[in-house]
# Entry
Amino acid sequence: MAPPYAAQSGAPPYAAPPGGAPPAGYPGAAPEPTPAKKGKAGLIVGLLVVLLLVVGGVVAFLVANRDSGSDLTATIDTCTIDADGTLTAAGTLRNEGGSESSVKMTVEFRNSDGDAVVDKGTTDVQAPGDGSTDWDVSGSAPDDVQRVTCVVTKIGD
# Structure
């Protein structure tokens, strides 16, 4: 009797594999099972974790680099030029922060006819935490300047 795995005519004979099963890929052999498809749940969870880390990093960066002067607001209550050319600007500095701030304020006096800077002055201001304080700055204008506009250009160091 010929073995069930006899070679075809002219082909070399093959021995039966151990266990009696035909070798893989041999005609009549059962196909190899395909590996189970992996789900994408792990990939999605991983991407969400990375996204949360990036968003958290951006928020932490913005909080850490917040401008310390952002809690200060200056208002100008008066802006005058006297007959002798004396310029005066006065107002209030409001501190919305919880701690006292010591800042230097810069005010420009601008000619209302053309907006050219006539003079500028600075003042040191101590603003209490969650409070306000008054400030004033003086300057001088030449005789040809009749009207001025006062502008706070800087609050800070």
Q: What stands out?
A: The first strand starts at residue 72 and ends at 81. Helices lie at 41-64. The chain has a mean pLDDT of 80.
